[in-house]
């Protein structure tokens, strides 16, 4: 019976009722895929080891009337429904392999039944008119196409699932890394990337600034040691002072792009960070350092330097307290309303309001950094005004040497042997 | 503007502030540390606050015109100017001249 081995099969009209098809994933056989590999372009062949033929009794289309008697047992139908569930990725924890095993068992059962029935059908079609045969062939082709389409869809869904799992893993790792302090920018966020660019740009510019300062200070040192004239020294001191102004300009720009980068002091070495105050050094500490280095000072100079130190201290205290008030205000804002498990709709509005207010408060931090930098700049300029040119030169050398020692300490610290 | 000028000349040190502004808080703290007792007008708590804010914006030219510090009826500046004055040693003499400090 040649016809039983040819293209007659149980194909479903894809156009007719594709939704029905997806609801009947009994047709999605792993072994069908195998079959497809063996005979990729042929419609179903009815060999002895044909994988499936069962059609759920719920199918009621006219074209299937002749074959609707294939499934006889209600248990097979139950199996079919199990299949359906196990193949839907989001409902069942079963793996595809498990479901395939189930499939295979059921498939084997049904193979027998279907095999017999198929012969019946094919016999009847063989006895039918040629028109029926053409129709049957068309139907078979359609069913094959639908089957392939379902297999492709299944493969795609499986791919999506594994990608999703991988994505979750990667996100978890990223979260872990962020928590450990690694700065990892989020992708696709323009403003965020500008912040990152601001931080990176500043780090690079600051490194350049340090190099330039080293150069200028070395020249100044040579000039001081070689007892250069006041005019010469004066020019060099002015140059170093102007160079200090440059870093404050850089910091202002960087604070606009990424205030928390400046505030964090990550652009400084660890030992310098130890003394960090509002994104930089503490002027009053610097003046304490200088007082001991700059003798002999006239009485007026001593008084002025002391006043400068005291004013700086008072201004620093005021800014520190303002910053503390900001932090407290921010904490109070974020803590207002209910925290914890309750999540009523009213809380959402509160939440948005909280966030809006908090954003405003965070924006104020930039102003504090600006004022702190202003203090630092003013301290240097006032110091320059109070001291003579030669004293200013020595002061600038002392300041640079102090920070250099801190930076060297950082390097030693980072390179220290750890047990 | 008249109200601002009027209020500013009533006391030796007058600060126009916003109650929720933390920089204003810092400046208030500074003047407290210096031992003076400034008159403080919170623009967000004053019924004429909005007009005063507009007047200050016109005077100072900044979107956020607080904390605005007047000493002896004359405008000294916002935070940055006040701090610079202090480090320059000119703030305390101003206060003394206006009679805001006893020492």
TrEMBL record, chain A:
Residues 153-180 form a coiled coil. Residues 1-20, 59-107 are annotated as: Disordered. GO terms for cellular component: nucleus. Residues 59-77 have a biased composition (Polar residues). Residues 90-101 have a biased composition (Low complexity). PANTHER family: TRANSCRIPTION FACTOR TGA2-RELATED (PTHR45693:SF46), TRANSCRIPTION FACTOR TGA9 (PTHR45693). Residues 199-416 form the DOG1 domain. GO terms for molecular function: DNA-binding transcription factor activity; sequence-specific DNA binding. It comes from Zostera marina (Eelgrass). Signal peptide: none annotated. Keywords: Coiled coil, DNA-binding, Nucleus, Transcription, Transcription regulation. GO terms for biological process: DNA-templated transcription. It comes from the Eukaryota. SMART domains: BRLZ. This is Transcription factor HBP-1b(C1). Transmembrane segments: none annotated. It is found in: Nucleus. Residues 132-176 form the BZIP domain. Pfam families: bZIP_1, DOG1. The keyword Aminoacyl-tRNA synthetase does not apply.
UniProtKB/TrEMBL annotation, chain B:
CDD domains: GRX_GRXh_1_2_like. Its main location: cytoplasm. It comes from the Eukaryota. Pfam families: Glutaredoxin. It is found in: Cytoplasm. PANTHER family: GLUTAREDOXIN. This is Glutaredoxin family protein. Belongs to the glutaredoxin family. CC-type subfamily. GO terms for cellular component: cytoplasm. It comes from Zostera marina. Keywords: Cytoplasm, Redox-active center. Residues 13-76 form the Glutaredoxin domain.
